[in-house]
Amino acid sequence: MGLYITLVVSTLYVASWMVLSATSKQDFMAEYYEHEKAKLESSELPAAEVEAKLEEMRYFGELYKNPAVKIGFTYMEILPVGLLVSLLCAAILKRRAPVGDARS
Questions:
Q1: Separation between Cα atoms, residue 22 and residue 5, nearest integer Å
Q2: Beta-carbon contacts of residue 37 (< 8 Å; ≥ 6 apart)
């Protein structure tokens, strides 16, 4: 049951993010890129390493324009946490056979 709840909630989260990102005037990836670029440029990393990281971010920014990739990335944000919580709760709440019951 917990896994179904996780799947439904994750799907609602992804759907709301897709609607929000499509209807808002904010370009999340461009803002994220600029923020990370400023952070990398102010770090003490070598220029070649900074440029390599920025190139990787540009690549993922282009990938993120594809709706299927955006859905996959968004599921990857929430689904693993939900699965972990569901499995942990299942383990904690697992029914145990009474002591002395031969069926266990």
A1: 26
A2: 54, 57
Domain layout of the chain by residue ranges: 2-93
- Both structure tokens of 32: 């994220």
Residue that has been written with the tokens 């996959």 in this structure: 72
Contact 85, 6 (CB under 8 A): yes
Please report which residue ranges of the chain form alpha helices under DSSP H: 2-23, 28-42, 47-64, 67-93
Residues of the chain with pLDDT under 70: 97, 100-104
Q: Would you give the DSSP letter of residue 100?
A: T
**What's the pLDDT at 86?**
92
| pTM attached to this predicted model | 0.72
